[in-house]
Amino acid sequence: MRHVREILRLSLDCGLSTRVVGERVGVGPTTVRDTLRRFRRSGLTWPVQPETTDTDLESRLYGVPGVKPGRRKLPEPDWAVVASELKRKHVTLQILWEEYYAANPDGYRYSRWCDLFRRWEGRLPLVMRQSHAGGEKLFVDYAGDTVPVVVDRGTGEVRDAHLFVAVLGGSSLSFACATWTEQFADWAEAHNAAFAFFGGVPQLLVPDNAKVAVIKACHFDPMLNRSYTDMARHYGTAVLPARPRRPKDKAKVEACVRIVERWVLGRLRNRIFYSLAELNAAIGECLADLNERRVLRQFGQTRRQLFEEVDAPNLKPLPAEPWVHAQWKRCRVGLDYHIALEQHHYSVPHRYARREVEVRYTARSVEIFLGGERIAVHMRGSGNGRHTTVPEHMPSSHRRYLDWTPAKIQEEAGRIGPMLSLLMERIIADRPHPEQGYRSCLGIIGLSKRFGPERLEAAALRALEIGARNYPSVKSILEKGLDKVPVSKAPEHEPILHDNIRGSQYYH
Predict the structure, then answer these.
(1) How far apart are CA 482 and CA 459, in angstroms?
(2) Is 336 exposed, middle or buried (0-12, 13-18, 19+ CB in 10 A)?
(3) Residues 394, 161: Cα–Cα separation, whole Å
(4) In the β-sheet with 345-347, what is the strand arrangement from edge to edge?
(5) What whole-number distance in Å separates Cα of residue 54 and Cα of residue 210?
(6) Global pTM?
């Protein structure tokens, strides 16, 4: 303490000289004069208020305790702005000091400037130091930078690949792989690759609050992506997202991302890659150096050695099969008891027509649910507009058409006559899809029961001559008796009449 109150009392109440006051208090006369000068500038009056403590009095006269007088008169930056700028990519204290010194040539030098910032930073809220048990947590995230990949050597087209990073909390064993996107399909495949790399599954997965993992962020009860939850359930683990706007909750992976960017991206910056597999092979080589050769100073071991001791014994075993990514979609069943999924139609039991259902589909299968109950399952079809129909899903009145094929229709028509068989062939050929002509063909064949095979054969000939290739036309021919009327050969085309066309008589 500077004995401010005693100096003021002896000087102002007792009227002693600065030399005598300095002798009694144990300070020099200069200190006494400086204290009196600061008191007059502070705006305080003597005696001070009784509730004013010695610390408050010293603070009013000298500012921050422990700082020598006259040493903080140089211009200072806004330290909060400095701290905010440091969070930006590639920004360091050296860069910020150079900008400060360029604007204030008479300001603090670099070492003193850093000391003042660290002192200001020490007054910020405390940060809890985290410790991670072996095999407990796997931190996952995407790096901010991408890697260009040449996808077409002819045109030189380049596509950016994204870098997925995963790190175990106990040993800091790091994994990275490149994916084309940050969508869930690539996110899930990266997780599968990470689990295979570690040879086991941790107790918890700690992602950030990206939409690929968390639908709705919440400090207390976040809403997780349904597919991400299914993947965690398949591997026997759980998902614990970091708190919103709390990146220090996953500081382990944030630090790992920086290390991977330096060890991987920095080393590969001058290489050209022509495929994702080639890029991932190069990343694997860099990871081997990082995990198996670099020694952690605080442990005296490599990440791989520490992993074998700490994490490996505590990881859960991998399931027999890796998780297959499944997507969910809400669909409405049509009147034809089919749902449409990516330009392909899948059947459900006909009693569920017009109902809204949930569809879970993977690369190989399609499952249809209603109220949590699976009502249909199919093999995944290609998006070609076709139908996948289970006979048991059809009403009994529709099943009789199920076994009909173009060959069978031709066979049935051939029993009546060749003209009818030819007509069936033309009807099926005219339709975009053969099945669209089945009903028309079956209806025409059924007319033989009413009008007889001979008349139907004649009607087929007439329909072929006039180009009538549908059920209503053939039925009309039979009902009006046109099958009994011979057809005169019509001209191939109508004559063209126009004033500008001379005709053959012009030349005679």
Answers:
(1) 7
(2) middle
(3) 47
(4) 338-340, 345-347, 387-388
(5) 53
(6) 0.47
